[in-house]
Write a structure and sequence with these properties.
Pfam families: Terpene_synth_C. By secondary structure, the chain is mostly helical. The chain contains 17 helices and no strands.
Length: 369
C-alpha cells in the first residue's frame, strides 16, 4: 500500500475505514531502516483523524462503553454494601446473545437490568428491612412521583432512582423503534417482580412453607428474568403490538424460560439454600416424603429438561400472526446462558463464570494437545 495507490484504488474511493485503521496499527511496529512503515504512519494518522473516517463515531462509542461501567457509580449502586456487583456477568450474557452491532440498545437494556435485578434480589434477601421492602414496592406501584415522595431510607431512594431511570431510558429507546410508549409496560414488569420478591420475604419472615404449586407460581417471576428479557424485546427490531405482548404465546415463552431458570437455580443451589434456610423446589419435594436428596435433585433435573424441550418447541413453531422469530430467540438464548451459568454449580453466585468469560476473550483455541 502507498498513499497514491490506496486513494486511486476502488477501496480508496469506497472510503475503506477498516483498511486504513489496520495499516495505521501495522505502521506502529517500526523496525530500523523501514521507511515505508514510517511513511504509512504519517498518512494514516492524518486520515484516521479525518471526519470522513468516522473518528467522532469511534469517540462516541468509546465514551458510551466507558460510561456503562460508570453508570453503577453514577447511580450510587456501589454504596449498597449488601449488593453483589455483577456487571461483568450481565454484560457478558448480553454480548453473547445480542452481538450484532445494531443491537446496542438491547445489550445496554439487558446488561443494566441484569445488574439492577441482582441488586434488588440481594435487597429483598438480606439488605432491606420489611419497611424498606414495602416502601420500594409502593413507590414502583405509584408510577408517578413528585417532590413529596417518601423514601424511608437512602437505600430505597438509591434503588428506586436507579430502577426508575432505567425504565425511562429504555422506554425512550423503545419509543423510537416501536412508535408507541411502552414505558408503563416496563414499569409493570418491575412491579410484578418486586411484589413476588416481597411475598418470598414475607414467607421467610413468617416461616411459611408454600406448596410446590404456590412456590413455582411466584418463583418463576421472582427469578427476575422479566426485567432483563422482556424490555429487550422492544429493542431488537420488529414492532410488537399490545396484543402480541399480552398473548398466550408471549406468556408461555416467558413462563417456560423462567421455569427453566428457577429450577436450574434450585437444583444447583440447593445445598447453599438449605444452609440459609431458604425454600426451593428441591426442599419442597423432600418435604413431600418418600424421596432422598438425590431423588429430589434428579426429579428437578428431569423437569428442567422437559421445560427446555417445550420452550424450544415454542421458539421453533411458526405462527402467521405470532411473535417474530428474532424476539422468540431471546427467550431461548437466555435459557442457553442459564445452562452455562449453572453447568457445574451456581455459577452466578461464585466466580467461575468470570474465568469462562476471560477464556473466551483472551485465550487462544487449541484444536490438538
Amino acid at each position: 500500500f502507498s498513499e497514491d495507490c490506496f486513494f486511486n484504488s476502488l477501496e480508496g474511493y469506497l472510503n475503506d475505514k477498516t483498511a486504513v485503521l489496520e495499516l495505521h496499527k501495522a505502521s506502529q511496529i517500526i523496525y530500523p531502516e523501514e521507511p515505508i512503515l514510517d511513511e504509512l504512519s504519517s498518512w494514516t494518522v492524518a486520515n484516521t483523524s479525518c471526519p470522513n473516517i468516522g473518528n467522532t463515531d469511534f469517540i462516541k462509542l468509546a465514551a458510551e462503553d466507558f460510561n456503562l461501567c460508570q453508570w453503577i457509580i453514577e447511580n450510587k449502586l456501589d454504596k449498597l454494601s449488601f449488593a453483589r456487583q455483577k456487571l461483568g456477568y450481565c454484560y457478558f450474557s448480553a454480548a453473547t446473545t445480542l452481538y450484532a452491532p445494531e443491537l446496542s440498545d438491547a445489550r445496554i437494556s439487558w446488561a443494566k437490568n441484569g445488574v439492577l435485578t441482582t441488586v434488588v434480589d440481594d435487597f429483598f434477601d438480606v439488605g432491606g428491612s420489611m419497611e424498606e421492602l414495602v416502601n420500594l414496592v409502593q413507590l414502583l406501584e405509584k408510577w408517578k412521583v413528585d417532590g413529596s415522595t417518601y423514601f424511608c431510607s437512602e437505600q430505597v431512594e438509591i434503588l428506586f432512582t436507579a430502577i426508575r431511570g432505567s425504565i425511562h431510558e429504555i422506554g425512550s429507546m423503545a419509543l423510537a423503534r416501536q412508535g408507541r410508549d411502552v414505558t408503563r409496560h416496563i414499569n409493570d414488569i418491575w412491579v410484578e417482580l418486586v411484589k413476588s420478591m416481597l411475598k418470598e420475604a414475607e414467607w421467610a419472615r413468617n416461616k411459611w412453607v408454600p406448596t410446590m404449586e404456590e412456590y413455582m407460581k411466584n418463583a418463576r417471576i421472582s427469578f427476575a428474568l422479566g426485567p432483563i428479557v422482556l424490555p429487550a424485546l422492544y429493542l431488537v427490531g420488529p414492532k410488537l403490538s399490545e396484543e402480541m405482548v399480552s398473548s398466550p404465546e408471549y406468556n408461555n415463552l416467558y413462563e417456560g424460560m423462567s421455569t427453566c431458570g428457577r429450577l436450574l437455580n434450585d437444583w444447583r443451589g440447593c445445598q447453599r439454600e438449605f444452609e440459609q434456610g431458604k425454600v426451593n423446589a428441591v426442599a419442597l419435594l423432600l418435604l413431600e416424603g418418600d424421596r432422598t436428596l438425590d431423588d429430589a435433585a434428579e426429579e428437578v433435573k428431569g423437569a428442567i429438561e422437559r421445560e427446555r424441550k417445550q420452550l424450544l418447541k415454542l421458539v421453533l413453531l411458526e405462527r402467521e400472526q405470532g411473535m417474530p422469530k428474532c424476539c422468540k430467540q431471546l427467550f431461548w438464548n437466555m435459557t442457553k446462558v442459564l445452562h452455562l451459568f449453572y453447568l457445574k454449580d451456581d455459577g452466578f453466585t461464585n466466580e467461575e463464570i468470570v474465568n469462562v468469560a476471560k477464556s473466551i476473550v483472551n485465550e487462544p483455541i487449541h484444536l490438538f494437545p
